[in-house]
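Quick log. Single chain, no ligands specified.
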Amino acid sequence: MTSPADDLVEPMHWTRIHGWFGWRDLQEEAVATFPEGSTFVEVGSYLGRSLCSMAEVVSSSKRKFTIVGVDYCRGSGREGTADKDSHAAAVADGGGTFAGQLHRNVIACGVADRVHLVVSPSPAAAALFADESLAWVHLDARHEYDSVVADIDGWLPKVAPGGWLSGDDYDEQWWPGVVAAVRDRVPDAVECSTRQWRWVKP
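-> predicted structure:
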């Protein structure tokens, strides 16, 4: 339910949210591919840029899907070959968590009625979903090898036959842990979109 004050606020567009996002084409393909009523999960939502884009794609399709964003909301720490902590400022601004800013951005984009947020470590969140219940799980959480392996192992059973398990930053130069984990756990995954990988469950 919205209040009269909400109607006076112009919604924020997802492009104004800080973050890194380059798989809008996969979102559009998912909406065109999977049956209405399917559930899409994004693991690693940061401040909601890609999550709010997904909500926009779903809204434009005039079809109903469930969208879930999962994030620990405490940042990934230093990672990758650049050894950079890209979330430090947002974590500090939020007093140790960016969960509040993520939620505020979802509300500001006007999609709080279509996006469900789960603030949890990735493997614990995966346990909340039944096996083979999800059409698409996109992994964009911590990019170190052990974390990506744990994400793949935790979420792969949750993907339905014909569904997708995919992920961001499939780039050996900057994110060798991502590439190595994908090759070890789902060697028949293919590169797609821009630096993305995708595995289709048989």
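The CA atoms of residues 102 and 188 lie 34 Å apart.
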